[in-house]
Write a structure and sequence with these properties.
This protein has 182 residues and is α/β, with parallel strands linked by helices. The protein has 2 domains: 1-57, no CATH class; 59-96 and 123-135 and 146-181, Spore Coat Polysaccharide Biosynthesis Protein SpsA, Chain A. It has 6 helices and 8 strands, in the order βαβααβαββββαβα. The strands form 3 sheets. It has a 4-stranded mixed beta sheet.
Length: 182
Amino acid sequence: MVDDGGVSCADVATQREAQGAGATAHVRSAEVRAAGATVLDVARSFLTAGPPPGPEYDLVCLLLPSSPLRTLRHVVESRLLLREGADAVMSMTPFRQDVRYACMIDDGADGWLMRCDSSQWPVRHYLKHDGTAVWARASWLTKAKDLYDGRIVPYCIPSDESCDVDTPIDLAWAEFLLTRKL
């Protein structure tokens, strides 16, 4: 059961919208709105907002706004994976590229392209967080160094159900995937 819906807002107008929909909403501080703030910074800001000692939550679900393919099924299935001893459940999707072919720019003065040392990488299935859902214990969120600092249960989502929208091409890809589902 979900007891409260909360929204971390960048501005007062969004806060009013969220509160009008029945959510607990807090405007992030300028420090947390600044470039470079992490999802963990935003979550901590929300958890400590309000009059001291702030709202108390046992479990928090982080739903990033950059995940337009999220469904209620994803939220429920990921929640069911949180088990005793785990700090969080994080939605993951396969890398679209084979990391064995990764290259980087040499840090030397000439900046030559060089292939990453893939001999150290086992041939395996690599995943990345996609922003669909993170269920986390609030006590862990307040002390974790980053979102990967803990005992994380992966919730694997097929790549045709996942798109983290950060660029216009990501949005076009999400729209394409949505039209395939109709």
